[in-house]
Amino acid sequence: MKARMRSARCWSCFVTLAAEANRTDVHLSSRAPILGREMPLDPVALRETLLDYGARTFWALIVAAIALLIARAVRGMTMRVLARNRAQANVTILLGNLAQLLVIVVGALGIVAIYTRDTFGWILTSFSVVGLVIGLSLQDILKNFFAGVWVLVERPFRIGDAIEVSGYGGTVEEISFRTTQLRTDDGREVIVPNGTFMTSAVVNLTRFPTRRAATWLALPADEQAVDPEDVRAALAKTQGVAAEPPPSVELRSVADGKAQYLVTFWATDRDAALAQALRALRARFPQGEVHVG
């Protein structure tokens, strides 16, 4: 009998615990929707946020419009200035587009500053560091590129000119943004980085059409002084000798019974004209000595 009563009591406790557990689950499930429900937004805060971003967007649109107008004006002005200086067409277009892009980038940074405000300094610093790293890694390429742009704008030499730079000489075959190609007299190709023209002297052999040549004329000192007109008459018939400026004769020294005269003249092909001039002076002054150097 006692055993039955004990088992009945245990069964009732089990039923009571199960009922309590069911009530707890029901209570928790009834609260779940309340916990998952979103909190209502504050109308005042929402209104202030919308007004703030609306004002930012308004000023951003104004900055974008002004930047585009200025960029277009800068591009046109840059291209007109370069065209007036007779720069190459490709360089004119390139620099015009670069000027326009620079103004657009400045306008884009202004728009970013409007939206980011306090964090704009950090963003600008990050871009500056990245740009510095890229610039340092590409400094040689960028140096040659900007030097090529300078060569194409200033045009210290043109295609077809004969130049000498850094110990190399030849005819300019091609000018690109990074390098300049030369063809030497013996048919070799020399590729010169454009940065060389910014740090080394360049001799343009064809910028001026004539070159000066000189020769020495030695005559006996006891003879009458040389008349410059006689020398000019002898060289006037010489092929390759330029009429303007006229040849000149200068008495340099009298020693050992000889008078030394320096004869200078101008010619388009100095070497060929010098050989012809030596022949003409020897024929005109057979009693003298004519030599170079």
In the sheet with the most strands, the strands line up as 4-3-2-1-5
* Class derived from helix and strand content: alpha+beta
**How large is the share of residues in beta strands?**
15-25%
> What is the global morphology?
rod-shaped
* Average pLDDT level: 80
Instruction: Enumerate how many helices there are, as a single number.
Output: 8
| CATH C-level of the largest domain | Mainly Alpha
CATH second-level architecture of the largest domain: Orthogonal Bundle
Query: Distance between termini?
Result: 149 Å
Radius of gyration, taken over Cα atoms and rounded to an integer in Å? 45 Å
Low-confidence stretches: 1-8, 21-36
Query: What letter string, H or E per element, gives the SSE order?
Result: HHHHHEEEEHEEHEEHE
CATH topology of the largest domain, which one? Helix Hairpins
Number of domains: 3
Architecture overview:
This protein is α+β, with helices and mostly antiparallel strands and 293 residues long. The chain folds into three domains: 46-137, Orthogonal Bundle (Helix Hairpins); 156-204, Roll (SH3 type barrels), CATH 2.30.30; 211-291, Alpha-Beta Plaits, CATH 3.30.70. The chain has helices at 2-36, 43-84, 89-116, 120-137, 139-154, 196-199, 228-236, 270-284; strands at 162-165, 168-175, 179-183, 189-193, 202-204, 211-220, 248-255, 258-267, 289-291. Strands 4-3-2-1-5 form a five-stranded antiparallel sheet. A four-stranded antiparallel sheet has the order 7-8-6-9, with helices on one face. A hairpin with a 2-residue loop joins strand 7 and strand 8.
